[in-house]
Design goal:
The complex is a heterodimer of chains A (290) and B (325). With 290 residues, chain A is of the alpha/beta class. Helices cover 32% and strands 29% of the residues of chain A. Chain A has a six-stranded mixed beta sheet with strand order 5-6-7-3-8-9, sandwiched between helices. Chain A has a four-stranded antiparallel beta sheet with strand order 11-12-10-13. A three-stranded antiparallel beta sheet of chain A has the order 2-1-4. In chain A, helix 5 (114-121) runs antiparallel to helix 6 and helix 6 (137-149) packs parallel to helix 7. Classes of the chains: A alpha/beta (290), B mainly alpha (325).
Chain lengths: 290, 325
């Protein structure tokens, strides 16, 4: 029990946030433990960004939220010594020079290592004298990532970090994150619409819809619970009888997505696959915009 | 922890143009006019007058008449002009700096970067107020003084070309004493400016768009409505409590020395008439005269209101990061 408390990074109970009549978060509860990479996935306007803002102390909310032992509403400055944050591209001030940004973070952040930052920057085309406004979108993200990876933080929050970047930058972003940054003492929460690009790095999955948690599970649990079966036309009726979450057609065959049905029964219907997060997401969110 | 010095440095980095280059340009233009005036006076050998607060011809006449006290006083006057125009520039720089200080980074969303660092909102807001009341004025006075020294070199050369020695006049002037007096006004300016600093930061942190309109229109409309109520004979602010004066302090007291016309500052009247013949410029700025303002409730009420507004700005800074654009 004590061990569990020590490794708990985020503990949210009954988190609620309303904008007028719209409930961006509607009584959400979840826990995030140390050493996990959590994908927070949801349609536009589902409350992902609001949840992240609450964790980062950027918004007021109702309910109970504990991040690394701090109340983000009251202790943002202390919290930010242990938490890093990259919001969707280009929140670095456009007037600042690279050298000024490094000097500033060095001075205000006790856990920042300028040497590490320089090492990361030396692998890019970014020069110290450049201003952010002279950098391309991809280079801005490289700079931000270099600043953040040089901070020995316990929690890294990424809100659509690769939005608008080309595939080369996106690939290298997640690669450097995994190989040069992540370890069992760190925790990453990431939201993105490009689910397929991060699903192989996630350890946990949280689906959020209309301000509520639609699914919260580890990737192992997801693999055990959900299965995709490619069914020949003659067994379609039998498959439908098992109440699939979703059904789609490819090359004349039907593909069914099942939740919590025994493998042996599904194997009799056809070929079994592990469903992709994207397919699972689409099935879970059916009718969101209807 | 060196957070506060770095926060001030950060403000300087972002506003180098306003804090550093604006006084350089303004005083530089004054120097250029001096040079142009000297050249045209030489070319036409006429009565073309070069005015730098006072006429350069006057200065030359004083020097040639060996009236070094008057010449020194004239030079002090010119130094005051250098400081004063730097202050006029400073007013505009600070006005827009403060209006944007807690708004611009919300508009371009870089507030998300600043807030991702372990810097409290209180430290952020305080650093912006300090940049406005200390960093920017110190730079402006330093630049004005350096420009004035450049002016002294110009005048010495010019007088020398006419066989006159300007050095006794410069010895009779008080360049360092004037500089010290400029510096001594900084704390008083800061106290006096607090209501305007607070007022502008408050709107900057609160509004979702157009901080300028809110900050300027609200006092303006209040004054108009008050005057209208007065015309109708309805209850309104009048007499000892002059609403327009109070509201003007919210907008204009960031102008260094704008208290010079206020009661208790030792300089009576709505404007200072610098009679070079019968007054000493350097003693007009004497701290013992200016600091008489400290005895005025006006100063302290304003300072308290300013601090309250700054506290409100911090409160909004903690809660509001969006703008409507």
């Amino acid at each position: 029990m004590t061990a569990a408390i020590n490794t708990e990074i985020v503990r949210a109970r009954n988190l609620t946030k309303s904008y007028g009549t719209l409930k961006a978060l509607d009584g959400v509860s979840f826990d995030i433990e140390s050493g996990r990479i959590v994908g927070l996935i949801g349609p536009n306007g589902a409350g992902k960004t609001t949840a992240l803002k609450a964790i980062l102390g950027l918004t007021d909310f109702e309910g109970e939220l504990n991040v690394l032992g701090f109340d983000p509403r009251k202790q943002r400055a202390e919290l930010m010594e242990q938490v890093c944050f990259i919001a969707d591209v280009a929140v670095l001030p456009r007037w600042i020079r690279v050298s000024e940004a490094v000097e500033f973070v060095t001075g205000v952040h006790p856990r920042f290592s300028p040497e590490k930052c320089q090492a990361f920057l030396s692998h890019t085309k970014i020069q110290p004298g450049m201003r952010v406004r002279e950098l391309s979108k991809g280079m801005i993200v490289q700079l931000h990532l270099a600043l953040v990876m040089a901070i020995d933080a316990r929690l890294l929050v990424l809100d659509e970090p690769t939005l608008g970047l080309d595939i080369l930058y996106r690939k290298s972003f997640y690669e450097s994150l995994l190989s040069d940054y992540f370890d069992e003492n760190k925790t990453i929460i990431v939201t993105t619409h490009q689910v397929e690009e991060i699903e192989h790095i996630l350890t946990d999955l949280v689906f959020i819809r209309d301000g509520k948690i639609a699914l919260a599970a580890t990737m192992d649990e997801v693999g055990e619970r959900y299965a995709e079966v490619m069914v020949n036309p003659d067994k379609v009726e039998a498959a439908r009888a098992l109440k699939p979450l979703n059904e789609r057609q490819i090359f004349g065959k039907s593909i069914f997505l099942f939740d919590g049905i025994e493998r042996s029964r599904l194997a009799a219907l056809g070929e079994l696959h592990k469903p992709s997060v994207a397919d699972l997401f689409v099935a879970t969110m059916k009718g969101t915009y209807a | 922890m060196k957070t506060l010095p770095l926060l001030l440095k950060r403000e300087y980095w972002e506003h180098r143009g306003g804090f550093f280059w604006t006084p350089i340009w303004i005083t530089g233009v004054l120097l250029i006019f001096t040079v142009l005036g000297i050249i045209s006076a030489e070319v036409f050998r006429s009565n073309a007058h070069v005015h730098v607060g006072i006429s350069l011809d006057d200065l030359r006449n004083h020097i040639s008449a060996n009236d070094m006290i008057q010449a020194g006083n004239a030079l002090d006057m010119i130094q005051l002009v250098f400081g004063a125009i730097a202050c006029v520039g400073l007013f505009f720089v600070l006005f827009f700096y403060l209006l944007g200080a807690l708004y611009d980074d919300r508009r371009d969303r870089s507030v998300l970067f600043w807030k991702s660092l372990p810097v409290s909102d209180t430290a952020t807001v305080v650093s912006k107020a300090l940049a406005a009341i200390l960093v920017a004025p110190l730079i402006a006075f330093a630049v004005a003084t350096i420009a004035y020294f450049a002016f002294l070199i110009l005048v010495t050369l010019w007088a020398g070309a006419h066989g006159l020695n300007a050095l006794p006049a410069i010895m009779a002037a008080h360049p360092l004493g004037m500089f010290a007096r400029f510096m001594l006004t900084v704390p008083l300016n800061a106290l006096w400016a607090l209501p305007a600093v607070g007022w502008l930061l408050f709107w900057s942190s609160w509004v979702r768009s157009k901080p300028f309109l809110w900050a300027v229109l609200i006092p303006l409309i209040a004054v108009i409505i008050n005057a209208w109520l007065g015309q109708l004979g309805a209850p309104h602010f009048d007499g000892d409590f002059r609403l327009a004066t109070v509201l003007a302090r919210l907008l204009f007291s960031i102008m260094p020395g704008s208290y010079l016309g206020a009661p208790g500052a030792g300089v009576r009247g709505s404007h200072i008439s610098w009679k070079l013949e019968d007054d000493h410029v350097v003693s007009s700025l004497d701290p013992s005269r200016l600091y008489g303002l400290m005895a005025e409730p006006n100063l302290w009420i304003g300072a308290i209101a300013g601090l309250a507004l700054i506290a409100a700005a911090i409160w909004f800074r903690q809660r509001r990061i969006e703008t409507s654009t």
